[in-house]
Amino acid sequence: MTPLPPALLRVLARLAAAAALGAALSGCGAAGPLDFDDNYPKPKDYPVHGIDVSKYQGTIDWSAVADSGVKFVWIKATEGGDRLDERFQANWQGAKQAGIPHGAYHFMYWCRPPIDEATWFEQNVPVEDDALPPVLDVEATPDSRTCKRHLERDATIADMKVMLEEMERHFGKRPIIYTSVDFYEAILSGGAFLDYPIWVRSTKHHPAVPYGSRPWKFWQYQADGVIPGIDGDVDRNAFYGTREQWQAFLDGPK
């Protein structure tokens, strides 16, 4: 039998991986944690899915990611006031060239003045009309070696307010807040920032279980996802809404 050309083999491999991804999202063969709770929608019930990445995903084949059906990506840009993710620029340009809607996120470091962190983020993230809104990633960091600050609710909300308002002023789009369950319960569950869209992490339950009635815009439902073009695990996310609502979100206002 005549061997297939390498380029064709790569195309066939991408198609097979994309088919496997589609089967997982549709529930065919999906089991375990992706089953989540009875009586609540499952990730597969939401039609628009995306990922978030950082340097830990290494070099990404963005063309393969786009071919797999990924509809959006958030890319880690900065942390604190002086840390830039070493893969940010490559990931930003790669996603852009592949035609994947993309945005940047900043990981909050609780021992720097928030305006310094906002300035650092702004210095490193392009202002582009077609980019997704910026994301402020807020999580408790009790294991930090350099920041032992205990997060008090009022002071933490005040710091977030500075960041969010400056990000919106600079980028012209209302930022999204990414949060984990423990941070939400300790800081945000009293109704803080209800006028901001929220992106929730919940890998064991539908968001309605840990986050109650708080409306959410994005759901990070899996930390060990497999996506063509990415070696190793990657976070997978669902958008709350239909394909038409997703298009309206892309069209703005953000």
- Secondary-structure-derived class: alpha/beta
Query: What characterizes the major β-sheet?
Result: 8 strands, mixed, barrel
- Rg of Cα set: 19 Å
CATH-level-2 architecture:
Alpha-Beta Barrel
The CATH superfamily appears as: Glycosidases
Proportion of residues in extended strands: 15-25%
Q: Give the overall shape.
A: globular
Strand order, biggest sheet? 1-2-4-5-6-7-8-9
Distance from N terminus to C terminus (CA atoms, Å) equals 55 Å
Number of helices: 8
CATH fold field value: TIM Barrel
Tell how many strands the DSSP assignment holds: 9
CATH class descriptor: Alpha Beta
Q: How much helical structure, as a percent, in the residues?
A: 25-40%
Task: Tag the structure with descriptive keywords.
single chain; about 250 residues; alpha/beta; TIM Barrel; eight-stranded mixed β-barrel; about 35% helix; about 20% strand; disordered N terminus
Task: Describe the overall structure.
- By secondary structure, the chain is an alpha/beta fold.
- It has one domain (6-251): Alpha-Beta Barrel (TIM Barrel).
- 35% of the residues lie in helices and 18% in strands.
- It contains 8 helices and 9 strands.
- The protein has helices at residues 6-26, 62-67, 88-97, 114-124, 153-171, 181-188, 208-211, 243-251, and strands at residues 49-53, 73-79, 83-84, 102-107, 135-138, 176-179, 198-201, 218-225, 234-239.
- It has an 8-stranded mixed barrel, surrounded by 4 helices.
- Strand 4, helix 4 (114-124) and strand 5 (135-138) form a beta-alpha-beta unit.
- Helix 4 (114-124) packs parallel to helix 5.
- The longest helix has 21 residues, at 6-26.
- It is globular, with a radius of gyration of 19 Å.
- The protein starts with 5 loop residues before the first helix and ends with a helix.
- 36% of the residues are buried.
- Mean pLDDT is 89; it is low at 1-32.
